Amino acid sequence: MTGATGFIGGRVSRALVERGWTVTALARSPERTQSLRDIGVSVVPGDITEAATLAGPMRRADAVFHLAAWYALGVPDRSRMYQVNVKGTENVLWAAAEAEVGRIVYCSTTAVLGSHSPGDVEDESARHHGRFGSAYEETKWMAHEKVRELAAGGLPVLTVMPGAVYGPGDPSILGVLLRLYAKGWLLACPFLDAAFSWVQVDDLAEGIVSAHDKGRTAEEYILGGDNATISELLHRAAPLTGIRAPRFGVPERVLRLSLPFSPVIGRVLGQPPRILRDGLESMSGSFEFSSDKARRELGYTYRSIEDGIPETVRWFKEN
After folding, report:
1. Which fold does the domain 7-318 belong to in CATH?
2. CA-based angle 304:194:305, to the nearest 5?
3. Which residues of 2-20 are buried (b: 16+ CB within 10 A; e: fewer)?
4. Quick check: 95 and 58 in contact, CB under 8 A?
5. Taking the CA atoms of the chain, what radius of gyration do you get in angstroms?
6. pTM higher than 0.90, yes or no?
7. Residue percentage of the chain with pLDDT more than 70
8. Domain residue limits, the chain
9. What is the pLDDT of residues 156-195, one digit of tens each?
10. Residue 154: predicted pLDDT
11. Is residue 282 predicted with pLDDT exceeding 90?
């Protein structure tokens, strides 16, 4: 497992352990691995950007789950993100090929399929329009294309594409939004009309494991959930959380006028300095997708916004 110390990877690790797997996690930072060790995961030092550290841990692996990536909006260092998301993926896949691993699950994102017109719901056949809203979106698309190339060449890899992932402990900008909402501080909200396919992180973890068990080699599976705009999500959650949804949006022109202050806004929100710029570029259009293929072939299920968001809000309210 790569990325086991991350928001998604930690859940996948636990799901595998609960099924009786012996899990070995590659980790750059041993100090962040105690929670993995506590559930019985073995930890080995390594870095996906350093190919020499990968061969040893993979020699006895039946499967490789490649979840490691640098997910952030507003990061100015595109070259480092390229090294992690693109070169790191190439390193992992080549090492798995050399170790003759029989099954590889690669975690991509629906962002590689691009946005589309509001109201449309796309599936795995969608293709990116070529206008990238962030370095993350572009580098994940490049990695996704590399995986497609290697799969076509016979590498035993399949790809999962999560939608907008949320859940307790989410450190992303979506987690920031839900934390502000949980505290009652979200009086006005930007990007209210931005639409996503919302998936709770534990449902996603189960879907990733099911993809290993039931998925077809070289296939791609969207693992999303309820499709809704941010405004719709908050209004659907409000009766269950007792917290009123924001009454006002933040107009795009106001956001653009605020661009010079993006580093300050990023610092306040605990996000990278260009978060406002990338938010404006990345959250235009719709990212609503169908998970029907995963439901048919993997038995994938997901909880509704009404079932998933309130428990997440409670966690942010209490922590």
Report:
1. Rossmann fold (3.40.50)
2. 10
3. bbbbbbbbbbbbbbbeeee
4. yes
5. 19
6. yes
7. 100
8. 7-318
9. 999 999 999 999 999 888 898 999 999 999 888 888 999 9
10. 96
11. no
